[in-house]
Amino acid sequence: FSRLKTGLSRSAAKITGGITGVFTKRKLDDEALEELEDQLIAADLGPAVAARIIKGFRSTRFGKEVTDEEVRETLAAEIAEVLTPVATPLELDRAHKPYVILMVGVNGAGKTTTVGKLASVYREQGLTPMLAAGDTFRAAAVEQLQVWGQRAGCEVVTAPANTDPASLAHDALSRAQKTGADVLLIDTAGRLHNKTALMEELRKIIRVIRKLDPTAPHATLLTLDATTGQNAVTQVGIFKEMVDLNGLIVTKLDGSARGGIVVALAEKYGLPIHAVGTGEQIADLRPFDATEFAKALVG
Ligand code: GDP
């Protein structure tokens, strides 16, 4: 996770830089707590988590001198407590062959990239993944998925431009069943500006693949871009209304993202966070480790 730590150094600076200012000078009084709360909110942890952390400090340390180190440790522990229940690796149930994963998320979130990274993880595990280019309306998206398929060394099922995505998904699942693929990853469109159309498109994909496997999809995962801050939180709400979400993958935690958004997501929705994206390369997908992440976040 050294890359994650490096990647998070900027968000960490956001929180701990403030802490230094607040605590080296004075006791843990009302003003100091208020400042700390503002900093936690500014770091995207969300008001609920910030309030709870402050309450904890108030009940145990109020009026006392505290060191930076103590504040950091307490913060890391509190954050880890929020993150631990959601830090769950994505387990493939091998009883399903193929195990069907529907990947959803807005354009630009890193969905296609994450599909490629996951395929590579499965290949390394000795499994046979197959990819379905479900965003049939964007030629660039299809091409991009083909490139990822080459990198990961797996088959990509595509269809001519403007084919019904549900029909493509059906063909892909049928092919995956025939060839004995272990995992089918279905990439989908992310045109959120027409929510109703997107919802219908996703639901139709699900309806149609269930004709071949009534238990599919076995996981519906939402990819979120951490650099979009609170928008990421909003997107979970929107996609939850469209489909049954089973888990999240948070990308771009290597960039200027405030990693605090991950804490807000965990607190608000409690959905499993299966992995985090830490770069544009195929190997830049990390399991989500609550304790490591919390430590990296507070620096
Ligand atoms: P999609 O529209 O959701 O399928 O998004 P893409 O997979 O096309 O990704 C959009 C952009 O984000 C591309 O330039 C990717 O290289 C980049 N990207 C995806 N994941 C990550 C990540 O974890 N870190 C960084 N820095 N960039 C990423």
TrEMBL record:
Keywords for the protein's UniProt record, in alphabetical order: Cell cycle, Cell division, Cell membrane, Cytoplasm, GTP-binding, Hydrolase, Membrane, Nucleotide-binding, Receptor
Domain AAA+ ATPase: 97-289
GO CC, alphabetical: cytoplasm; plasma membrane
Gene3D superfamilies named in the record: P-loop containing nucleotide triphosphate hydrolases, Signal recognition particle SRP54, nucleotide-binding domain
Highest taxon listed in the record's lineage: Bacteria
InterPro entries, alphabetized: AAA+_ATPase, P-loop_NTPase, Signal_recog_particl_SRP54_hlx, SR_rcpt_FtsY, SRP/SRP_N, SRP54_GTPase_dom, SRP54_N_sf
Protein EC: 3.6.5.4
Catalytically driven reaction(s): GTP + H2O = GDP + phosphate + H(+)
A single MF term (Gene Ontology): GTP binding
Principal subcellular localization: membrane
Cellular compartments annotated: Cell inner membrane; Cell membrane; Cytoplasm
GO biological process terms, semicolon-separated: cell division; SRP-dependent cotranslational protein targeting to membrane
SUBUNIT field: Part of the signal recognition particle protein translocation system, which is composed of SRP and FtsY. SRP is a ribonucleoprotein composed of Ffh and a 4.5S RNA molecule.
Function: Involved in targeting and insertion of nascent membrane proteins into the cytoplasmic membrane. Acts as a receptor for the complex formed by the signal recognition particle (SRP) and the ribosome-nascent chain (RNC). Interaction with SRP-RNC leads to the transfer of the RNC complex to the Sec translocase for insertion into the membrane, the hydrolysis of GTP by both Ffh and FtsY, and the dissociation of the SRP-FtsY complex into the individual components.
Family per similarity comment: Belongs to the GTP-binding SRP family. FtsY subfamily.
Annotated protein name in UniProt: Signal recognition particle receptor FtsY
Organism: Acidocella aminolytica 101 = DSM 11237
Lineage summary: Bacteria, Pseudomonadati, Pseudomonadota, Alphaproteobacteria, Acetobacterales
